[in-house]
From TrEMBL:
Domain spans labelled Cyclophilin TM1367-like: 4-120
The protein, known as: Cyclophilin-like domain containing protein
Matches recorded under Pfam families: Cyclophil_like (PF04126)
Lineage: Archaea, Methanobacteriati, Methanobacteriota, Stenosarchaea group, Halobacteria
Length: 124
């Protein structure tokens, strides 16, 4: 699959697919582009998205830059820093999420204030 382009308001970020959760990766690839008005929870944005498929690997703590799917909540989440559930600088989701991709450089999100419109699509 090709790499991804993630737009967060006026910021354009590049992302790479991860090897984890191949069924959900394919399901996301099948519905691209996806877009939503994201809510913010610490340094996490999440928006509604329904994907067909079941997670194979889930984690509560994820690396910075992770794009993950929370199946029971039907949301896609972007993590770039600590959340209210974190005990250090490592992003921690409220519940286990299935990692799908990783944003290469999250620094453009450092000054994000509040929620944002998020769009994920195949990179050109």
């Amino acid at each position: 699959m090709p790499d991804l382009e993630v737009t967060v308001d006026d910021r354009t970020l590049k992302a790479e697919w991860l090897e984890d959760n191949p069924d959900l990766r394919e399901a996301l690839g099948d519905v691209l582009p996806v877009e939503g008005q994201a809510s913010r929870w610490g340094d996490e944005l999440y928006f509604d998205a329904s994907l067909d498929g079941q997670p194979e690997t889930t984690n509560e703590e994820v690396p910075v830059g992770t794009i993950a799917y929370w199946a029971s909540g039907e949301v896609i989440a972007l993590f770039w820093g600590p959340t209210p559930a974190s005990t250090d600088e490592t992003p921690k989701a409220a519940a286990p999420v299935a990692p799908l991709a990783r944003i290469v450089d999250v620094s453009p999100l450092a000054d994000l204030d509040g929620g944002a419109t998020v769009r994920i699509e195949s990179a050109a």
